[in-house]
Design a protein that fits this description.
There is one protein chain. The chain is of the alpha+beta class. It is built from 5 helices and 3 strands, in the order H-E-H-E-H-E-H-H. Pfam families: RF-1 (PF00472).
Length: 138
């Protein structure tokens, strides 16, 4: 399910974003600048989704939701705080959209006539091959 722009804006307004020191290589920039983004979205207090949508999100994203019902994401792939913030928001929106899309049911199909005939022909060939391997009757 695609989220509308207004829903995305509401989600962004409900986010709690904090910048923390990033780890790993980067020299002086890593030591001075808080570029890693910690993004928190409280699913239980959100006014964007209905109760059924919240339940579905809770089930699908149970590994990402903590005991308080908060989705916590970290992003530190870029050197810039702004880029990390944009990527974290995009990652959250993508997670929510993916979790809200309903699973498509498989449509049952019957085997075609030609596939049935091929299967029977193959069985016949296999049986003749096995019969040829047997000892001849005397």
């Amino acid at each position: 399910m695609r989220l509308s722009e207004t829903q995305k804006d509401q989600i962004i307004n409900e986010l709690k974003i904090s910048a923390i020191r990033s780890s790993g290589p980067g020299g002086q920039n890593v030591n001075k600048v808080n570029t890693k983004i910690e993004l928190r979205f409280n699913l239980n207090d959100s006014a964007v989704f209905s109760e059924t949508q919240k339940q579905r999100l809770g089930i699908k994203l149970k590994n990402r939701i903590n005991s308080d019902g908060v989705i916590v994401l970290f992003e530190s792939s870029e050197r810039s705080q702004l880029k990390n913030k944009q990527q974290a928001i995009a990652k959250l929106v993508e997670l929510i959209e993916k979790a809200l899309t309903p699973v498509k049911r498989r449509v049952k199909t019957k085997p075609t006539i030609s596939s049935k005939l091929k299967r029977l022909e193959k069985k016949k060939q296999q049986s003749t091959k096995k019969q040829l391997r047997q000892r001849p009757d005397l």
